[in-house]
Amino acid sequence: MSLIRLQNISRRYQMGAETIHALREVSLEIDRGEYVAIMGPSGSGKSTLMNLVGCLDTPSSGSYELNGVNTSEMDDNQLAGIRNREIGFVFQTFNLLPRANALRNVELPLIYAGLSNEERKTMALDALTQVGLADRIHHKPNELSGGQRQRVAVARALVTNPSIILADEPTGNLDSRTGEEIMALFETLSRKGNTLIVVTHEEEVARHARRILRIRDGLIASDEKTEKKSGVDAVLAVL
User: Which domains does the chain have, with CATH numbers?
Assistant: First the structure.
C-alpha cells in the first residue's frame, strides 16, 4: 500500500465571480522511503499540492489517503492530529523560536505528545545529533549560521519520527554552498529510509531527489525517476 495516495484531487478557489482551478483532478502515489521533488513555476499549483499533502488544506473534490487514512473530509482538529503524528515540516524561513535554544526548539513538537521532560530532551538530542549539531544544543538561533538554523529545523521535523518529511524551498534563504550541505543531509536521511518530499523551483535542488514531479497549470506535466536509488533501495542493495 502506498504511503500517499491522491485520487482525482482538485482544488478550487473562488475569487469574486472567478473560479481559480489550482489543481485539476491530480492522481498520485508515493511509496514509503521515496525521495520526491515537486517542481513548478509560481502559480503552477505546486504550493497547493504541498498544502494538501501536508494536511494544511483539504481538496475541493477527490480523496487523499495518508498511511491508509482518508484525510479528505477531516475537520481542523483531526488534520492537526495527523500533522503532529505523520508529518515533519521544514520551511524556507526556519520558523524557530528566537529566545529558545536549539534543544528547546527541537523539543517543541514533543510537548503535545505528553512525553516527560527527560524523554523529550533525549529524543531532541538524538535528532540534533543526526543533523550534526550535538555541540550546538544550547545555542539560540541568533548564535547559529543560516545552515545551522536549517539543520535545527530538520532535527525538529525528525524528532517525532514522522511518516513524511515535507520541505518547502529548504534552501531558499541559504547561499549555494550551505544549500548543498542541507541537500547532502537530506540524501543521508533518504539513505536511512526516510520519506522526503521537497517542494522547489530550483533544478539544482530537485536533482538530488530520486523522482521529480513537474506541475504546470494545476496538472502533473511529468513524473520522472532519476538514476539514483531511493533510501530503501540503497539499503536493500547492501544486504
Answer: 34-56+76-238 (3.40.50.300)
